[in-house]
Amino acid sequence: MVGTMVPLPPFIRPTRMGRRFTRPAGPPPAGDEVLLDAPDDRLSPALVAAGRGEYPAAAGLLAATRAGAEWENRDRYARHLAAFARSRPEWFDAWRAAAPDDPGVLLVGAQLAVDRAWPSPARTELLREASPLITAAARADDRDPVPWRIALDHARGSRAGHRYFEELWAAAVRRAPHHYGCHVAALRYLAASWRGSHRECFDFADGAAQDAPADSLVQALPARAAFGYLAGGGTGVPRARLDAAADRALALSARFPAADPWPAPVRNKLLYLLIRLDRWEDARAQLRLIGPYATSFPWERFSEDPLGHFLRVRDQLLTPGRQAGPAALAGLMSGPAAPLGGRGGHAGAGDH
């Protein structure tokens, strides 16, 4: 559904609730068993093959997501493959040479171009050069919302005006009204455009979650807004609104199995939020649901060693005899976190 986009279309239909599937969590794994940004069982073989310089597994994986309209998976896999290609480009170069019009290679190429441009001092110029790649990826399959998510990130990086962004947003939600990646991109644009004003971010996130199905990742969008508010040192948002955002994300997390890599990005951000809200028992329960699946984001915002930081937080919460509290965790949560729409951050493979 596309509405009047001022600044973004409202999402006003009531939430469609479904059955909850709460699964018990076992004891937390040992520290040396915890993995950082671990791929799932479908992505892992594609990355292993890419490490050998082979691209057919990656091509087949993205073709399967396209055929099945698995847009959330397609977005996540494209991000991971682009991140791998950034450090190991040989397999991707071979794929692009062999099949330059493959929708998968066009999608990864567009994501890779934006990722390469983002940290550069010449970001604006490099993003301008990336525009034709994003257009080609969008034209490869008119159903696919993922190129439009890349376009939304691109617009934020190039500081595009509201009218242009709203046109991109309208195109994105026509294709997938509840695509989480597009919603995160819009939230980040709002945060950057409104210079840290959090009311607009929360209003947008709450409205989107209200409209989305109960099992949609968009249910975690208010928690994403709360993360930006807390990490950016915001003021003025009532505690009840922060707790409501956490409660939505908790309900979503409970729908997935424990120790599952798919909800790990949501659960890791939720853990940060619960700690900042002093909700210790909820935080411990979420740690057990996370299991061995740590993610770089948000912990990389506080340390150059995100896995080590996650393990220190976990140890502080779970070690018998220790009492978690503001004083005990203050040092772990007071690193150089950037605001949601800050200059330094770009939505990387795990930044959802």
List the helices and strands and how they pair.
Elements: E1 35-36, H1 43-51, H2 56-67, H3 71-87, H4 90-98, H5 103-117, H6 123-140, H7 146-157, H8 162-175, H9 180-193, H10 198-211, H11 221-231, H12 239-253, H13 264-276, H14 280-290, E2 293-294, H15 296-299, H16 306-318, H17 326-330
Parallel strand pairs: 1-2
Helix pairs in contact: 1-2, 2-3, 3-5, 5-6, 5-7, 6-7, 7-8, 7-9, 9-10, 9-11, 10-11, 11-12, 11-13, 12-13, 13-14
Describe the structure.
By secondary structure, the chain is mostly helical. The protein has two domains: 1-33 and 197-352, no CATH class; 41-176, no CATH class. It is built from 17 helices and two strands. It has helices at 43-51, 56-67, 71-87, 90-98, 103-117, 123-140, 146-157, 162-175, 180-193, 198-211, 221-231, 239-253, 264-276, 280-290, 296-299, 306-318, 326-330, and strands spanning 35-36, 293-294. A two-stranded parallel sheet has the order 1-2. The longest helix is centred in the middle third of the chain and has 18 residues, at 123-140. The radius of gyration is 20 Å and the shape is globular. The two termini are 23 Å apart.
Features:
globular; single chain; 2 domains; disordered N terminus; mainly alpha; two-stranded parallel sheet; 352 residues; 17 helices
Strand adjacency order, main sheet? 1-2
Number of domains: 2
Low-confidence segments, ≥5 residues, pLDDT <50? 1-24, 336-350
How is the biggest beta sheet arranged?
Answer: 2 strands, parallel
| Count of strand segments | 2
Rg over alpha carbons: 20 Å
Morphology call: globular
Query: What structural category do the secondary elements indicate?
Result: mainly alpha
From N to C, what is the helix and strand string?
A: EHHHHHHHHHHHHHHEHHH
Q: Helical percent range?
A: 55-70%
Question: What would the average pLDDT be, to the nearest integer?
Answer: 87
Which range does the strand content fall in? under 5%
State the separation between the terminal residues, measured CA to CA: 23 Å
